[in-house]
Amino acid sequence: MTVNFPLIGEPLALDLLNTRPVGAGDLIAGPVGLGEWLAAQAGRVAPVDGVGAAEVAAVHAVREAAGPALAAVRRGERPPAGALRALNAAMAAAPAHRELVWGEGLAAPERRAAAPALRLAAELAEAVAELLTDPRVGEVRECEGADCVLLFLPANPRRRWCVASACGNRARVARYYARHGKPGQADAGTGAGV
């Protein structure tokens, strides 16, 4: 079964939080879904050889801490202490260090000496930390689409929907039917949920 992730390409922390869209359940509830999400994030997260229950649990722990932390910071409030502890613990469990290697030239890639689940959790927790400390964190928005909870960081301040061709289209169709007085048609053309 292949999962179509509703929104990919936002900051990594938002992509992680967006793995629980309304009506679709938890897209990374198990190893297959998490493996597919990691494949969709290729180049943004170090590859993981085999995704199992430990990786799923570690990623879920980061996501559970990221949500309340981001919600608080967006409101200009202090994040819950438990969320900060969880994110800090994930980062501390697999600290990163640079390692000089010679290939087609000298490079210094980041390495983590830890089990795959700890390494993955640390990478995602660092992505959350980057977002929480980004000066633009207050600009993170929730999609204005009906029943949509996806988050995005708009490049354009006028952006209102996670995906204009999905939630934006549904809103335009609903407005059209509302203007033209066709009762019961406000939901027409909505198609499948995001």
Automatic annotation (TrEMBL):
InterPro entries in the record: ABATE, ABATE_dom_sf, Znf_CGNR
Segments forming domain Zinc finger CGNR: 140-180
PANTHER family tied to this protein: BLL6575 PROTEIN
Name of the featured protein: CGNR zinc finger domain-containing protein
Organism: Streptomyces goshikiensis
